[in-house]
Design brief:
The chain is of the alpha/beta class and 389 residues long. It has helices at residues 3-9, 14-17, 36-44, 59-72, 83-94, 109-119, 163-172, 225-234, 241-273, 292-298, 315-324, 371-387; strands spanning 76-80, 100-104, 125-129, 145-151, 176-180, 198-202, 216-220, 278-282, 305-310, 329-330, 340-344, 361-365. The strands form 2 sheets. The protein has a 7-stranded mixed beta sheet, with helices on both faces.
Length: 389
């Protein structure tokens, strides 16, 4: 089955749709049984899409889980109330006191905070590694290393990792690999196809696509799915049926939205790459982005997210630039239909082992507005930036 057909048909069993196009919204806490035998069967089969208890899920949740499992070519999918919850739960499912974690140094800031503020208190040590290290990761492996965590491309600085090289080393040492695949979204990149054990997404972003639902998902391979599934259930992770329905609805149009995000972002990124104030663009499809060769090799496409680095700047110029924008709103998310912007004068607080020797970095999410309007907005705001240097 081709990709477009799969994303339309996945998760649409008659059990879920009950004769209509979309799976119905089934809200439930308590599931009732008529006989002891029926209840015992549900207890025994509760992991196999059998109604058991609301926290385990309803047919609405099962439809979404089936669809994302099929999208990412996994054995099963767990749902969480946010992307951060999906990351923390995946790590906590496989780490215990005394274990060692290798965390990529360009990780999403809440992931770093989890390691430094919570995992450390549980007796789990973390070593941050250079995202461009590839097979050199072997030098950082300890006897108690249990998990290698990847994020590719990385938050803000957008480095693309050599996933096959990292996975090969991990398998050699019997280490679990996890990857934050929010950028790749299962459409442009499928980590499990490359040997990664757990693929994690903030479904808040492109799966939902409309900036109105918080949700995380984690898809595991056959070996690790039973543990991820049961631990997530035991720690009470669940989502609402209404949010699951909205995520399913967003999933159906994700490829069309992604195509427009990609086309527009490439146009804006090209314009920025030629601007006098811009040092270089960090868009995975551009050769100026670290790891571009791995993007060309492993990904099917890009989306609306990229960064660009200024030749020079200061806090005054950055703030003036941000305040001057009209179509780009300041916000910490991305993946919705609207354009967003964030900026960092320095990456010092977001790095442990890799430095930042460039100027200020600005991250954009290109939404579904007309490109001409977005470029004009950036042009006038960059003029304000220049006047405040």
């Amino acid at each position: 089955m081709k990709k477009n057909t799969k994303i339309v048909s996945a998760g649409r069993k008659k059990q879920y749709t009950q004769g209509v196009v979309n799976p119905v919204v089934q809200r439930a806490s308590t599931v009732v049984f008529d006989t002891v035998e029926e209840m015992q069967t549900a207890i025994k089969e509760r992991a196999d899409r059998t109604l058991f208890y609301g926290r385990r899920g309803t047919n609405t949740h099962y439809a979404l889980q089936d669809a994302i499992t099929e999208l990412e070519n996994g054995a099963g999918c767990a749902l969480y109330p946010s992307g951060a919850a999906a990351i923390s739960q995946s790590l906590l499912s496989f780490l215990k006191s005394g274990d060692h974690l290798l965390m990529v140094d360009n990780a999403y800031e809440p992931t770093r905070d989890l390691c430094d503020k919570i995992l450390a208190g549980l007796g789990i040590t973390t070593t941050y590694y250079d995202p461009t290290i590839g097979a050199g990761i072997e030098a950082h492996i300890q006897e108690n290393t249990k998990v290698i965590f990847l994020e590719s491309p990385g938050s803000i600085t957008m480095e693309i990792q050599d996933v096959p090289a990292l996975v090969e080393v991990a398998k050699k040492h019997n280490i679990i690999t996890m990857l934050d695949n929010t950028y790749g979204n299962g459409w442009h990149f499928r980590p499990l196809d490359f040997g990664v054990d757990v693929s994690i997404q903030a479904a808040t972003k492109y799966i939902v696509g409309h900036s109105d639902v918080m949700m995380g998902v984690a898809v595991a391979n056959e070996v690790h799915w039973p543990t991820l599934r049961e631990h997530s259930y035991l720690l009470g992770q669940c989502t609402s049926a209404d949010d699951a329905y909205l995520a399913l609805r967003g999933l159906r149009t994700m490829p069309v939205r992604l195509a427009q995000h990609e086309k527009a972002a490439l146009q804006v990124a090209q314009w920025l790459s030629e601007h006098e104030l811009v040092d270089h663009v960090r868009h995975p499809a551009f050769e100026t982005c670290p790891g571009h060769e791995f993007f060309k090799r492993d990904f099917d496409g890009s989306n609306g997210l990229f960064s660009f680095v200024m030749k020079e700047g200061n806090l005054k110029s950055i703030n003036a630039f941000l305040d001057a924008l009209h179509h780009f709103k300041m916000g910490f998310s991305w993946g919705g239909y609207e354009s967003l912007v964030t900026a960092n004068k320095t990456m010092a607080k977001l790095r442990s082992t890799t430095g930042w020797e460039h100027g200020p970095i600005i991250r954009l999410h290109i939404g579904l507005e007309d490109v001409e309007d977005l470029v004009a907005d950036l042009e006038q705001a960059l003029q304000v930036y220049k006047e405040n240097l």
